[in-house]
Each structure stands twice: as structure tokens, then as C-alpha cells.
Design goal:
The structure holds two protein chains of two kinds. Chain A is α/β, with parallel strands linked by helices. Chain A has ten helices and 15 strands. In chain A, helix 4 packs antiparallel against helix 5. By secondary structure, chain B is an all-alpha fold. Classes of the chains: A alpha/beta, B mainly alpha.
Chain lengths: ~300, ~240
């Protein structure tokens, strides 16, 4: 098990009855990085996070977080002392005031940073005497982030963190994540907001139907992934572009779009050899990669 | 600080039940003890026999209210938190599930103990101040023990039900359903031996002439306490294995 890996799972699976929610997941998250965890609703993101934190138990497979086995209750408890988690719905104890909740949470962490607590209280304008139940979802999100950051975690896990925040709140939130990462905190967050992931993440993992489809660094995405759009005067030839490194292919009319990983040149060469009318090569955005990945099965009939 | 959370969760239920119990038991003692309401307060002297009788009937009141209170106090925990969406925050804390359950149990035990003893403190204070009666401590202890042990068993049952059944309102309905079944047992001959409420009220152990408790059911007290421990152990085990 590498010490550079903060999260590592091996063939991790979760089944509820006959339904397989997570299948043989091999996830690796590097220390000190911001990793975005993308997937559609029901793809298995939240279940994966729950398994990592010992909230749900794996049906099979294994995993470690900060070097501690997630299946072992004692190790999982020690691990949670060094991990902060912000859940998707940000529900907190409604019967406590902001101050009571901070005091309650602080009691579990020896390295609690009072300076961070005070700074975020001021920055987020959180009313200390107000009950949590009367806070808006945005304010609850900010409070949850305060509770997560003030405990000085090694790993920050967030499930749909920006949901419920206004644009200003999102900016503040993303800035805090980047600042946390610059202090050496590893950030692992699931999100539907691909633009946010693309903006701050070092690594992106895409999960679909419980399977990890893509794990790519943002640098590799920018350097190696290309979208090659080839136009033909007649129907596109079928089967001619079965080349290594072509991740996804779709066809619309006389135009075929290839998603090439590392070998865009080979696609271009092949297109010219087939007398293509036009060949365009562009960078691939994370959004495109995501959409191609999660709709790959639906588009399988479009393979040429 | 888990005890603090458990206290904040149950404090209004506890304080309402405590206030209700102290008020009803105190009212009962004043009302019955003075013969015709409060008109002859404070000096109405009566004998030890009447005093024992009075306390016995006050205990019948207490049993009714304590059974309800014990169930209400056990109604919380991770499954209820799951129903309201806060369970992920709790389970992400660096504490074991056993600690989560046992902190609730410890606070609940203390609350049941307070609910059992506080009405007696009030009643005995009223008796000694207004009626200038000596306190029959042994008699009182024998009346308190079944309420306490039965209350703890009902609390344990409530904890178990709230560990097995999801939903904010489903678990209380099931727990009170079990209590109603138990009450039904008090009026059916074949089930009478299993009736917890019947044991708590001690009706078959009190001499109706002298109002002295005799042949005290120590075995039933022990069974209640052992049963409480077993129910809590099952609850803890259930919560440890459960997916959230």
C-alpha cells in the first residue's frame, strides 16, 4: 500500500439485495491533491464515500483511508479523527445553536483550530446564538465547512459541497478548498458541478453504474485528450477507426467525433487516408469527457 | 460530549414528564391527604396506615405516567437521526457506535432514575411539611423499586425498538403498541404473570388491611434489570452491524 495514497480501494463492492450499487471499485487518491468524484445521480458516489467512512459496510473488496482499513471498526474510528466529512444534505443537529454545535464538535478533536473557527465564523457571518434549524441550507453548508476545516483534518471528504450555495458562497467555498489543499489537506469531493471540478481539481474520477470509468489528472486531460471531428462527403466508413486509445466515438450524419487519448495523430492520419472532407482537433473539456463516459453504453450503437 | 447531545435531544421530553409526574403525585397527596381538597391545609393528621395507603395509590399514578415517560425517553438514536437526515454527521465523528448507544443509555438511565425518585421527594416533602407525618422509608423503597426496574426495562425496550425500526413516528407507535399489549395482559388471566405493569403496581403484594407490602417480588426486579441489560446489548449489537 503506497504511503502517497490517502484513499485506496481494491475491488470494493456494495450490493443491496440484488442491486449492485458499487462494483469492483479500484479508487486511488493521491496525498495533497484535490480530487473530484463525478457521476450521475445513483452512480454510487455517496455509497462509496459512506463505505470509506465506515458508515456503510462493503459487500466485498477492501480499502484503506489514511492507511487504515475501512472494514475494521477500530481503525475506522481512528481514521475518522483525521478525516472531515461534509454530507450531501448538510443536515446538522437542529436543536443545537451554532455555538453549541461548534463546542460539541470541537470536543472530539485535539487539534481544533480556534483561529480558523473564528475566521470562518466572521467570514461566513454565522450567527452563534441562532439555532441550526432556522439556518438556510447555504448557511448550514458554511457551518458544516467550518466544522470540517477547524478540526485540522488530513483528508476532507465532501459530498456535493456547493449545493445550496449562492454564487458568492460558491466562490468563498472553492477558495477555502484551494486554501485547505495548499496547507497539505487532501480534498476528495463529489459534485455535479463539473465546471467547479475542472477549476480546482488536480484529478478527476468518473464513476458510472457503480464502476470507475475514468481516473485522470487534469494535466493529462489537457495534454493527452483530444476531440477529433472528421467530416466525410458520404456515409462515414464503419470499422475503420478501431485504434488503440480511442475512448469514445459518436456519429451524427456524415460527421464522426472521436475522443482520442494520446493518439490523436493516428486518427488524423487515418482520416486523411480515408479522404475525409474535414478534420478538426480540439482540446477536451472535463464536461465532454464526463458526458462521453457516462453515455458510452447508450451510444454504443453509434460505434463505427 | 455525547452525553450532552443525548441530554439536548431528550431534555424537553424529560422535563415535561418530570413536571407532570411531580405535579400529579404531589397533587394526589395533597388532595387525598387533606380529605376534601385543600380546605384543611396544612394540619391534617392521619395514621401510618392511611399514609401507606395514600402512598400506594400515589404509586399507581406514578406507574401509569412512568411507563409512558420511559418509552418516550428511549425514542431517539441513529435510526431516528437517519429519518431526519443527520445520521451521517453523527457517524462521521471519531466515536464508536457502541459509545453512541451507551451515551444515550446512560443519560436515559439517569432520567428514568430522576423520574422515579423526584415524585417521591415531592410527596414525602409534602407529607412531612404539611401533614407532619414520619416517612415510612422501607415502604417507600418497596414501592419505588418496581417502578424503577420496570421503567428501566421499558426504556430498554424502547431503545431496542428505536434500533430496529426506522421512521420518526413508526418506532414510537410500535413501542406504545407493545405497552398496550402488556396492559392487555393485566386483564387476561393466562397472561397476567407476564404483565410488567401488574408487577410495577404491586397490587397483589399489598395487604389491603394494613397496606404493608409483603412477599416482595425480588425475582421480578432482578428479571427486569437483567432484561434491561439484554435489550441494551441487543440494541448495541444491532446498531454496530447496520448500514446507514
Amino acid at each position: 500500500m503506497s504511503t502517497d495514497l490517502v484513499i485506496e480501494t481494491r475491488e470494493l463492492s456494495k450490493r443491496y439485495g440484488d442491486a449492485s450499487v458499487v462494483c469492483d471499485l479500484n479508487l486511488k487518491v493521491q496525498r495533497g491533491q484535490i480530487t473530484g468524484f463525478l457521476g450521475r445521480n445513483g452512480a454510487g458516489k455517496s455509497t462509496t464515500i459512506k463505505m470509506l467512512l465506515g458508515i456503510a459496510f462493503p459487500s466485498s473488496g477492501s480499502g484503506t483511508v489514511l492507511g487504515r482499513a475501512i472494514q475494521n471498526a477500530k481503525q475506522s474510528r481512528h481514521m475518522r479523527a483525521e478525516v472531515a466529512y461534509v454530507a450531501e444534505d448538510k443536515q446538522l443537529y437542529s436543536y443545537m445553536t451554532v455555538e453549541q454545535l461548534i463546542r460539541f464538535t470541537r470536543s472530539f478533536y485535539r487539534d481544533w483550530r480556534t483561529d480558523t473557527e473564528q475566521r470562518l465564523l466572521r467570514q461566513f457571518e454565522l450567527p452563534k446564538q441562532r439555532k441550526v434549524k432556522v439556518l438556510s441550507k447555504g448557511m448550514r453548508t458554511k457551518l458544516a465547512l467550518l466544522l470540517a476545516l477547524a478540526r485540522r483534518p488530513q483528508l476532507l471528504i465532501l459530498d456535493e459541497p456547493s449545493e445550496g450555495l449562492d454564487p458568492v458562497g460558491i466562490e468563498e467555498f472553492l477558495s477555502e478548498l484551494v486554501a485547505a489543499a495548499s496547507e497539505g489537506i487532501t480534498v476528495f469531493f463529489s459534485s455535479h458541478q463539473i465546471a467547479e471540478v475542472e477549476r480546482i481539481a488536480d484529478q478527476a474520477c468518473i464513476i458510472d453504474r457503480g464502476e470507475l470509468r475514468v481516473s485522470v489528472s487534469m494535466d493529462d486531460l489537457r495534454q493527452d485528450y483530444r476531440r477529433v471531428t472528421v467530416g466525410f462527403t458520404g456515409d462515414p466508413p464503419r470499422g475503420a477507426f478501431r485504434l488503440p486509445g480511442i475512448s469514445h466515438i459518436s456519429t451524427a450524419g456524415r460527421q464522426t467525433v472521436f475522443l482520442a487519448q494520446g493518439n490523436a495523430d493516428a486518427v488524423v492520419e487515418k482520416a486523411h487516408a480515408l479522404c475525409a472532407a474535414s478534420v478538426d482537433v480540439d482540446c477536451v473539456s472535463l464536461r465532454e469527457l464526463f458526458l462521453h463516459t457516462v453515455t458510452a453504453k447508450e451510444n454504443s450503437d453509434a460505434l463505427v | 460530549m455525547l452525553w450532552y447531545k443525548a441530554w439536548l435531544e431528550t431534555r424537553w421530553r424529560f422535563l415535561l414528564c418530570l413536571g407532570g409526574l411531580v405535579f400529579f403525585c404531589g397533587f394526589f397527596v395533597l388532595d387525598r391527604g387533606t380529605g376534601d381538597g385543600f380546605s384543611r391545609l396544612p394540619a391534617f393528621a392521619f395514621g401510618l396506615r392511611e399514609e401507606r395507603r395514600l402512598l400506594f395509590f400515589a404509586q399507581q399514578w406514578q406507574v401509569g405516567l412512568t411507563t409512558i415517560a420511559a418509552i418516550l425517553l428511549g425514542m431517539a438514536g441513529l435510526l431516528r437521526e437517519r429519518a431526519i437526515g443527520v445520521t451521517l454527521f453523527t457517524l462521521a465523528l471519531p466515536v464508536s457506535r457502541t459509545q453512541l448507544v451507551l451515551s444515550r443509555v446512560a443519560v436515559g438511565f439517569a432520567e428514568v432514575l430522576a423520574l422515579t425518585l423526584s415524585p417521591w421527594v415531592a410527596m414525602l416533602a409534602l407529607l412531612s411539611i404539611y401533614m407532619r407525618q414520619p416517612i415510612p422509608l422501607v415502604h417507600v423503597c418497596l414501592l419505588v423499586l418496581p417502578v424503577l426496574s420496570g421503567g428501566l426495562l421499558l426504556f430498554g425496550m424502547s431503545i431496542l425498538v428505536s434500533s430496529l425500526i426506522e421512521g420518526e413516528y413508526t418506532a414510537p407507535v410500535v413501542a406504545f403498541g407493545i405497552l398496550i399489549l402488556n396492559l392487555y395482559g393485566t386483564i387476561v388471566d393466562r397472561l397476567r404473570a407476564l404483565s410488567l405493569v401488574r408487577f410495577m403496581r404491586l397490587q397483589e403484594y399489598v395487604d389491603r388491611q394494613t397496606w404493608v407490602v409483603s412477599n416482595f417480588p425480588w425475582a421480578s426486579v432482578a428479571i427486569c434489570l437483567i432484561g434491561t441489560v439484554v435489550l441494551i446489548a441487543i440494541s448495541t449489537s444491532t446498531i454496530q452491524k447496520r448500514d446507514f
